Protein 1
Amino acid sequence: MAIRDLDFRGFDIVLSSSSAFMKSIQVPKHTFHLCYCHTPMRFAWDYDTYMERQSNSGLFKRLLKVYMQQLKTWDQRTSKNVNQFVANSSVVKTRIQNYYHRDADVIFPPINTSRFTSSSSIGDYYLIVSRLVSYKRIDLAVEAFNRNGLKLYIVGDGPDRKRLEGIAKDNVSFLGRLEDEQVTGLMAQCRAFIFPGEEDFGITPLEANAAGRPVIAYQAGGALDTIIPYVNGVFFEHQEVDDLLKAIYEVESYAWDIDQIMGHARKFDEQAFMIQFKQYVEQAYVNFLKGE
C-alpha cells in the first residue's frame, strides 16, 4: 500500500532497485520504468527453503505459506508495471523468466575494490561475513570446522546466532558486527573466504577477492557468475559437510596467485558498473520512446 501511494508524475525515467516490493511502483504511461531486480521476492517464491530452519511453529509456517500464495499472485500481477527488467545475475534472470514470464538482461552489481588491499601476512583462520539467518547455511560451515578443528571467524549477527553458537566448538569464533576497516583487515589475512549458501549474487566473495583471497563457494546461485575454479576460488557441489571439507583441502593444496584474484575482482568495480549501467539505461529509454 505504501509503494502504491508513491507519486512519480513529472518524471521521464524511474529506476527501481528491488528484491521484493519496489518493482510494483506505478508510473504514468509516458514514464519509462526500469527495474534492477536482485531477485523476485525470495521469501515467497522459495518459501520452503527460506523457512525450513526457522524456529517458528509448524502452524505458523503453514498459515504463512497460504498468505505467500496470495503474495506470489500479487507479485506476478505487479511485474507488468515494469517496462524493462535488468537482473543482477544469471540465476535471477532465470527466475524472472520463470515467475514473471519476462525477459531480462544481466548487469552484475558493483563492488568498491579501492576499499581493499592485499596482505603479505596470511593468518591461520577462515572467514565468513554474513547475516546469521538460517537459509545462508552458516550451520554447514560450523559443522565442517567442528570436524577439521581449523579456526573459523564469523562476522555478523542475526536471529540464527544463538543456535549456531550452541553447536559450535571452541575453534569457531563469533565476532558480531564489526567496523568496515576491521572486516577488510580480516579479509586480507584470511586463508580463504567461506560462502556456504545460495545467494542471488553475493558481494562478499568478490570483496574477499579484492583483498586477494580465494573463495570456497557452494556451486549455485550468483556464485556461478563470479567464481572461476582455481582462478579466484573453488566450488563444492553439495551442501554437505564432506563436500565442504574436500573444498577446504583443495584450497590449502593450491598455490594461489594474489594478483590474478584481485584482477578478477576489478572486473566488477564500481566504475565499470556505472559506465555499463548508464549506457544501458540510455539505450533502453531510446527503445522505449520508439515503442520497441
Protein 2
Amino acid sequence: MTATTVDHGDFAGARVRSRAIDTTWTLYAVLTASACIVVGLIWDISWHRTVGRDTFWTYPHVLEQFAATLSGLSCGWLVLRTTFAGDDAARGSTVRFWGFRGPLGAWVCIWGTILMIASAPFDDWWHNAYGLDVTIVSPPHMVLALGMAAIEAGALLMVLAVQNQARTADDQHRFGRSYAVAGGILITMIATLIMQYAAAANRMHSAMFYEITGAVFPIFLVAFARASRLAWPATKTAAVYMGIVLVMMWTLQLFPATPKLAPIYNPVTHMVPPFFPLLLIIPAAALDIELRRSGAALRNAAASGPETRGGASDWLLALLLGVTFVAIMVAVHWFWSEFLLTPWGRNFFFAADQWDYNRPLGSWRYQYWGLDGPHRTFALLPFARGLGIATLLAAASARVGLWWGNGMSRVTR
C-alpha cells in the first residue's frame, strides 16, 4: 500500500474556498440589501426635504422594505442550508441558535429584517393615530433605524468572516474588496445620520464640526483598516462612501418634484440632493500611511520584546492618528467650505445652495454657522480650544477603532 501525505493546511483552505464559493451569492445579496437601505435612507431624507412628510408607501420606504426582505430571505436560506445540508466543517464554523446553524452576521441580518418589517404596520398605525410623521424621532422610526443598523452590521460581519477564512491571495483580495464596500456603506449611513451637524459647508469653520467628525469617523476608518486584507483600506472605504453620496446627489437632482405640505417658503422644482460628501478620502489616506508605518514598528517590537498589538503602542498610535485626522480635516475642509459658499459651488456638480422647501431663504445660506466668537464671529482662542477637544475625541475614537479592528480581524463565524 502506498502511503499518502495529506497537507492539512491545503485541505482546510480548499474546504473554506469551496464553502465560500457556495455562499458567495448570499454575501452579494446581503451587500445589495445593505446598499439599498442606505440609498433608501438618503432618498427618504431628500423626499422629506422636497415633498414633505408623506404616507408610509413612498418609493424610498418600499425600497427599504425590499432590502429587508432580500436580506432576511437570503440569510434564512443560508441558515437552513447550513443546518440541514452543511457538512460538519460548515456547521462548526457557525453560530447555533434554537438548534439552527448560521454565520453570526446572518443572524444579525435576520434580527434586523424582523425589526424593519415589524416597523411597517407600527408606522402605519402611528400615522393613523397621530398624523403623517408627526416627528422624525418616533417609536416606529426608532425600530426601523435599529433594523437598518442591524442589517448593515450583519452584512459587514458576514463579509468579514469570509475574508478572514480565505486562504488564497485571490480570495482575500476579492472578499477584501467586498469588506471595503460593506464598510463604506456603513460609514455612509453614519454620515447621513449626523448630517445635521457635520455636512453643510456653513459649519466647517466651527469647532463643533471638527469635534463631531473627530469623535465619529476615526473609530470606523481605523477599525475597518485594521481588520482589512487590502492595501489602502481606509482610503478605499472612504472612496465607497464618497461614491455613494455623489451618485445619489447627482441622480436625485434629475427628478422633478414639488412640495405638498405647507408652509412652503422655498418652492423647489426638483428633488433636494444631499450635501456634497465630506472629503474623508484625504484624512483616510493619511490614516492608512500611519497604520502601515505602525504595522512595521509593531512587528519589530513583537520580535524583540513583549510589546504587541493592544498594548502601549496602540495608545501612542491612537494619539498620532487623532492628531493626524483632525489636522488634515481642518486643512482640507476649511478652504473647501469657502469654495462651496461661492457662486462656483452653486451648480449641478457640487449641488451647493439647495435647501428644504420649508426654510425661508436669506443671507444665512452664505454665512458660517456656529462660530464661537461674540456675535457669531470667528474667534481664534475658542476655536483652538475646540480643536484640542476634537483631537482628544479623535484619539479616543481611534483607540476604540484599534481595539475593535483587532477583534474583527479574528472573526471567522
